[in-house]
Amino acid sequence: MTTSKNQTRHPLELVTQTQAELSDRPIQRPTGLVEEVYARVRAEIMSLAIPPDTRVTIESLARRLGVSQTPVREALSMLEAKGLVTKQQFIGYCTAPILNRAQFEEIYEIRLLLEPYAARRAAEKMSDEQIAELQRLLARMAPDGDATRSSYDRFAEQDSDLHERIAIAGGNRLIAESLARMHIHLHIFRLCFKSRIASDAHDEHAGLVAAIAARDGAGAEEAMRAHLRNSHARFSQFAQP
Ligand SMILES: [Zn+2]
User: Fold this and answer.
1) Residue 227 CA to ligand 1 centre (angstroms)
2) Domains of the chain
3) Which residue spans within the chain are E strands per DSSP?
4) Ligand 1 centre and the CA of 140: distance in Å?
5) Residue 230 Cα, ligand 1 centroid: separation in angstroms?
6) Minimal CA–CA distance to 232: which of 188, 199, 192?
7) CA 213 to CA 30: how far, in whole Å?
8) β-sheet with 85-88: strand ranges across
9) How many CB atoms are closer than 10 A to CB 32?
10) CA 195 to chain centre
């Protein structure tokens, strides 16, 4: 068994090992490589740099990112779990199609049924510490003029986090799980790439979090309803027929 040949590899590169080497070697890889590939590809899919419903091959991604195929394969599995790519027999990976009009309307219909109620319950039940965490998350989401693809993807992730915290704090596990399973934010934010969306949503989030912090259940419910209606209006024109 050899170990020396691994020492000169590119820091971002995985070791290509033979079967014989694999048998007795502890798992070794630079930490964070898969995550880095995942974050890169995810940001490209979210910002439509890689268009919807488009074939992505492991080989071409590996070549473009300058890494071996292994971390790309792992990153694509993670993206598949999030619903951003699908794996099709004989074809390989494709980016998920964009939401159609009916799916878009269904998502907002279920959100408007569940999330305002969850916000009311969160205002009544959230602990002071959970509220403080929510306020810290809100502060991190403040627009900073950065209009890059990765900042857009980060906002989508944080928005998802904020809504999930409220749903969980509402105390109904089924509501929280139903919302989480739909990967709502990934699909909605993928309808278009516009940095304005983050700043528009920020004021609405601030009002919502303020109502929760004031333990104002009715106010939180109404703030969530208004936020969802505005969000619907922001994205509606981008949903396909
Ligand atoms: Zn939101």
Assistant:
1) 7
2) 15-95 (1.10.10.10), 101-236 (1.20.120.530)
3) 55-56, 85-88, 92-95
4) 14
5) 10
6) 188
7) 42
8) 55-56, 92-95, 85-88
9) 12
10) 16
Nearest to 16 by CA among 6, 26, 8: 6
Give the Å distance between the CA of 81 and the centre of ligand 1: 22
User: pLDDT tens across 16-67, in order?
Assistant: 333 444 445 554 555 689 999 999 999 899 888 899 899 999 999 999 999 9
Bridge partners of residue 56, in order along the sequence: 93
**How many A from CA of 54 to the centre of ligand 1?**
28
> pLDDT tens for residues 72-108?
999 999 999 888 999 988 889 999 988 889 989 999 9
The alpha carbon of 201 and the centre of ligand 1 are apart by a number of angstroms equal to 6
Q: What is the mean pLDDT of the chain?
A: 85
The pair phi, psi for residue 142, each rounded to 5°, is -60, 135
